[in-house]
Amino acid sequence: MDLSETQELTKEHTIDPSENFLYHQKSHISPLHQNHSSNSFLLIVLEPFQWFHMLCKELNTSFVLGVVLVYGVSQGFAGSFFRVVTDYYWKDVQRVQPSAVQLFIGLYYIPWLMKPIWGLLTDVFPIGGYQRRPYFIIAGVLGIVSSLTVAVTAKLSVIMALLSLIGITAGVAIADVMIDACTARNSIEKPELAPDMQSLCMLCSSVGALIGYSTSGMSVHHLGAKGSLGVLAIPAILLVVLGFFIYELRCNRPSEKKTLEKVKGATSSMYTTMKCPHVWKPTLYMYLSLALSISTSEGQFYWFTDPKAGPAFKQEVVGVIYAIGALASIVGVLIYHKLLKDYPFRNLLFCAQLLYGISGMLDLVFVLRWNLKLGIPDYFFVVSEECVLRIITRIRWMPMMVLNTKLCPVGIEGTFFALLMCIDSLGGLSSKWGGGLVLHVLHVTRTDFSNLWLALLLRNLLRLSTLGLIFLIPKGNQSDVLVPTNLLRKREAVITEEEGLQLMPMDEKLEP
Questions:
Q1: Which of 27, 198, 436, 459 has the fewest beta carbons under 10 Å from its own?
Q2: At residue 511, what are phi and psi to the nearest 5 degrees?
Q3: Among the listed ranges 32-41, 236-245, 426-435, which one has the minimum average pLDDT value?
Q4: What is the DSSP letter of 90?
Q5: How does it sit in the membrane (predicted)?
């Protein structure tokens, strides 16, 4: 996968780093061999590895490793595994209504809404002289305790089960803050690599999701929903390990006065930045695009597994369907990285949102069973639908993530990126609760799905209505700098003197 070509990189490198290996390989191959199909296949196979090597060289190996562990294992694998297992847990163990599950899932977003708080804690409240390592460990321990509590406790109440599941998501959210801050920092320092970093993050997430979905159905079948939740202790253990071996400089404990000044400075800078039209307009669009796309996933899940009204998919089948969807997500990442990362934000997001609304109509066709009238089997149709939806979702989400990194000013990029992701999470919570309200009003229950098609139609119309807000998105390219570097009055007052998590070479210091 090639880097976006920029003048700056052209000046620094005669040959693009991602193509350096291929260049030397080609220079030692005769024209006859260059035309040989086996060599061409080898070059294609090696290209992703060279791209990965280039990222390690340009962004530092520890950053790439952190992305793999947090995005790939903690978010990708654990997140997908968590989704399937908890659906069966609420349905078969706690036996609650789909509208109630939508409410509970909305509460999972609470730790993600608190990301600015986690960001401030890690930035200005070091523990034992370390700003990052202890919080990785705390995140891992929280995940371990929460997952084992719900897995081994007999007859756990709904409230305690909900708190335990929120604890699992809190561990993931805290660890995610570290990597997000580093991604935002690197996007500012190397804006031409911002799309590549998001490609790396989404690729790791998609591969992890593929593994998680592939194993979730079998796990529920053999271990049950409760036992399967205990598996989530494994990713949490890896976060603890990451906290012990990640390189970090030990800093002096700041005085209370200095800590207070940092908190006030960061808060004031975030307020100043958010008032900028170049920031609040796209932020508003991203929130509304997420919130207006109300979620009806739990109503659909109950219908999928119902033996009378729906197709009655088994646990293994559900896991396989989601796994194939995760594989399609990887295709979406590749399509974005190879074809779409150089398109302007507004044009790309408009087309992606339009396709997102149109693809939602496939759910309507499936629930109304029109696919059977067309002679298309349920399994084939739902797999095709899942693949289309996942590809479009990735193409829609990745430029949003790139845009989020572009909106962060230098100096408070970690905390401000956490704020932007908090707003996105608020959009997701609004989507879940809005969908739960619609399911409740339309009386979609564990056994009554007669109005599910109406909820899907309303959801799709709301998705399409977001197109009227596309003017809030800037017209700039994805490699452009959107926020002026002189936006903040006192950059030095906000930048942490010692960068906590060292994601650059150890002999290299961050710019003051």
A1: 27
A2: -65, 140
A3: 32-41
A4: I
A5: Multi-pass membrane protein
